[in-house]
Amino acid sequence: MKRQLILEDGTIFIGEAFGSDSEKTGEVVFNTGMTGYQEILSDPSYCGQIVTLTYPLVGNYGINRDDFESINPAISGFVVKEAADFPSNWRSGMSLDEFFKGKNIPGISGIDTRKLTRIIRHYGTLKGAICSIDKNAAEVLQQLKATVLPTDQVKRVSAKTAYPSPGRGKRVVLVDFGMKHGILRELNDRDCDVIVVPYNVTAREILSLNPDGIMLSNGPGNPKDVGEAIEMIRDIQGKVPMFGICLGHQLFALANGADTEKMKFGHRGSNHPVKDLKSGKIALTSQNHGYTVQAASVGRTNLEVTHIALNDGTVEGLRHKQFPAFTVQYHPEASPGPVDANYLFDEFLTMIETAKTEGEVTCQNVQI
Questions:
Q1: pTM to 2 decimals?
Q2: Which pLDDT belongs to residue 123?
Q3: CA angle, 26 as apex, 20 and 29 as ends, to 5°?
Q4: Is 343 marked as binding a ligand?
Q5: For 175-184, what is each residue's pLDDT tens digit?
């Protein structure tokens, strides 16, 4: 069955339909990863987006029970060059087509994804619609141009209520802006006692949980649309050590007076080189973001840039000059992607321990 992908600039791609018969609109983006399609399609940071994979063959090892980054994918559609009909892997439980049918997500294959990627790189991310070949393209294009993309993505993918993921180590409150399960997995591997809380949690509610540290997760959309979180970060920083990833990094920057801006087509892939400015070391990182912290705006804050992207010089890491808090734009949990930056979770726990020790010394001095 034929299906079409229509872009707001008038470009039309005609390909083969797979997955759900539903018709969806969204921001069309591309990911350059060569593997990890299951983690990509289940990453909540893609909420409302139509995701294009540049690697030509997708679905060859099927869908398994273990590699999800969320239970219910939030993407609007999936675009590939070729979707494997008969996956071959001992862990495979179903094909890409079967999975998308069950999750009501449309896919389109057999199009020139190289051409599509070049269009996005030239014009920037564009609105797009996946629809039946029978739909009048001119009418769809008119509707598409009038479509206003949603701004409530974080609300849609965040946890609705707090829940625990118990451990016997440090108590970490994980603020869920669209959390990848990989973050929770890394904290659990270190025996952290994790409490996951919704995006609109208040500083008072967090402090009532007596945390040793706070993790600000990744998530979708424009950080400026999440004003509640910016206020929470301002109220709580300096009281508890903090580590932010991706959207959490951007929110932390805004809370401290820096600014963010939308990128032309973003960073989405698993081989982005990042330089640690202190050590000079280069790490290959997994990334998925369409917004960035403006480098020039950091100078008027109490923050310092710790990491930069080698491809375009954008800000990839921040640290507070006074408080125990640091953030990175990339994904140290790396699903999919390399594990070069995995050590940051250990640095977070070390920072917690250091802050706790220094706090006890301070209290003892006050009592004396």
A1: 0.95
A2: 95
A3: 100
A4: no
A5: 999 999 999 9
Which two structure tokens, joined as six digits, stand for 133? 């070949």
Cβ(252)–Cβ(242) below 8 Å: yes
pLDDT at residue number 361? 40
CA atoms within 13 A on the CB side of 98: 12
> CA 271 to CA 260: how far, in whole Å?
23
* Sequence-distant (≥ 6) Cβ neighbours of residue 301 within 8 angstroms: 253, 256, 257, 258
Q: Are residues 86 and 214 in the same domain?
A: no
192 and 143 within one domain: no
Beta bridge partners of 287: 269
Considering the domain boundaries, does residue 367 fall inside one? Answer: no
Are 210 and 354 members of one domain?
Answer: yes
Does 336 sit behind a cis peptide bond, omega within 30 degrees of 0 on the bond before it? yes
- Contacts of 339 by beta carbon, 8 Å cutoff, 6+ apart: none
Q: Which residues are catalytic?
A: 246, 331, 333
Domain containing 169 equals 154-361
Provide the pLDDT for residue 360: 54
Phi, psi of 181 (to 5 degrees): -60, -20
User: Residue 164: which residues within 8 A CB-CB, separation 6 or more?
Assistant: 193, 194, 195, 196
The reply, when asked if residue 210 is annotated as ligand binding, is no
> Residue ranges of the chain with pLDDT lower than 70?
360-368
Domain count, the chain: 2
Buried b (16+ CB within 10 A) or exposed e, 322-341: ebbbbbbbbbbbbbbbeebb
298 and 172 housed in the same domain:
yes
Residue 208, annotated as binding a ligand: no
d(C-alpha 1, C-alpha 237), whole Å: 54
Tally of residues, the chain: 368
Q: What is the pLDDT of residue 335?
A: 75
305 and 214 belong to one structural domain: yes
* CA–centroid distance for 113 within its chain: 22
Does residue 219 have a known ligand-binding role? yes
pLDDT value at residue 2: 96
